Amino acid sequence: MKSEYFAYQTEPKLLSLSIRKIEETFGKPIWSDLAHQGGFLQDAKNEDGLVTKASYRSGLEQYLLNNDVEYEEPSALQALSGIANLFSFLPEFYLLPAITDYSSEIDRRSSSTVFCQLMGNLSERLLHTDPRYTEIEDAINRIRSLLNPQKSIDASPRMAALDDIELQLQNVLKELMPSVQTVNLNVEIENAKEIFSRGIAIKINDGVVTDVVDKGHGLQRCLIFSLLQMLIKAGRGTSINNRPIFLAIEEPELYIHPHCQRLIFSVLKGFAGVTDDPTPTQIGADQTIYTTHSPSFVEIANYERIGVVRKPNCKNGTVVHQCPAGVLGSVEERKGFKLLTSFGIKHNDLFFARNAILVEGPEDEIGIIATARKLGRIKDLPDEIGLTIIVTDGKGDICKFQKILNAFQFNYGVMLELDGKGENDKQTVPILENINGNRIGKLDSRLETLLGLNRHFEDQRHAKEFFSNPANINEAMENLVVALLPEATQVPLPQTFGLGIPG
């Protein structure tokens, strides 16, 4: 199969930023004057301090990458001949798959694994900062010169033995094939990045000193995330020009202890340059995207970085739902929502449910679960029917959850306690306005009144003791829960992917 690449090409409007325009205008330009005019004279100088066409082109490429430049309208679609050069400007793509035998992904003997690619990138980003790094490059160039034909006058002469081998092979081959005129041997020498990606063995002492390939999958995956964490720091805040990395991960929670998952989530956010600023304005150069079934790897407060993936049926196929950052409105509203949801990951379960019920307090959740058990809709917990009950910690925050549920097209119910104030209360009106055709169960007063109690539940323990006796659950409570529960027929559970980039 033959691959062909096409692209729209354009030129900067400013003459000094276009080599084609320069040559058409001046013929033989003074490159140093043009580099000074363009504002990148220092970057355009070669090792001798001179500005040639080649050094001008190199300095110009850096300038165009690092500055906002006005361009002409793009030309017609053209075939790309220098595709390798184009790829050098694109991010490097790494895929960390959800595989059964994880040791193959971390095996240093393969040059295409994520482990080897990350080791190569680390060497490039970290070792370049060492002043002695040039010694490695000089040594590699020295070996290359000793083993290959001399390409320039300044290069070291090749080993004579290799010239003799070429001549002997040429003479023997000519006896068999008289048309042969010359034979050239070229020995391919890896660069420093390739040496470090293929030649590093890591031994870890976790009670027994063995190669990481012989460790468990959990430790191996943690090593990958440790390399990512090092890449976060390497090169950031320096002038080193590194290619960005685009990291794709399938199920980052695989093989990872539950208490460690949230730490790895922080690593992924850091890798992508994501902050906890509720109004992020910048995106990191490195980016990550992953699929997950774990609430530890999503944050409901950062809903704009989440996509919910559903396949309701074969006819419609897979559908992805996302929502813009402005769903919650003002910065203050968003900050308040982040504070509300920042003390645990329970709210994140929302993205993995078929359906949801919003309630004000934990006693309401206890009552719904106990009643659903009595009605035979569940045996133990709402998870059995793909249902998540979200405690919003107050009527005033129900509407915020509604807006997000509506944006992601979730089905849900709202348990609405009117507290004897009617439907025109300032906290009730927004809830009714955002119900969006979903289920609602209204109580004229409070849950305790519906149950025939003349006092509030003292705490969650009191509520659990009360609802543990099915005889305490009256018909009014049963009717309320029937109105809140989804129908028995359900669509498949959604999957969720998290984006390590804002927006």
Can you describe what's shown?
- By secondary structure, this protein is α/β, with parallel strands linked by helices.
- The protein has three domains: 82 residues, no CATH class; 143 residues, no CATH class; 179 residues, Rossmann fold.
- It is built from 18 helices and 14 strands.
- The strands form four sheets. The protein has a six-stranded mixed sheet, with helices on one face. Strands 11-10-12-13 form a four-stranded parallel sheet, sandwiched between helices. Strands 1-2 form a two-stranded antiparallel ribbon.
- Helix 6 packs across helix 9.
- The C terminus is likely disordered.
**Domain tally:** 3
- As a whole number of angstroms, the C-alpha radius of gyration is 32 Å
pLDDT under 50 segments (min length 5)? 278-282, 499-503
Largest sheet: 6 strands, mixed
The top-level CATH class of the largest domain is Alpha Beta
Mean pLDDT over the full residue set: 81
Name the helicity range. Answer: 25-40%
Report the CATH topology name of the largest domain: Rossmann fold
Total DSSP E strands: 14
Shape: elongated
Name the strands of the widest sheet in spatial order: 3-6-7-14-8-9
DSSP strand content: 5-15%
Structural class: alpha/beta
Calculate the terminal CA-CA distance, rounded to whole Å. 37 Å
Count of individual helical segments = 18
CATH architecture of the largest domain: 3-Layer(aba) Sandwich
Indicate the multimeric state: single chain
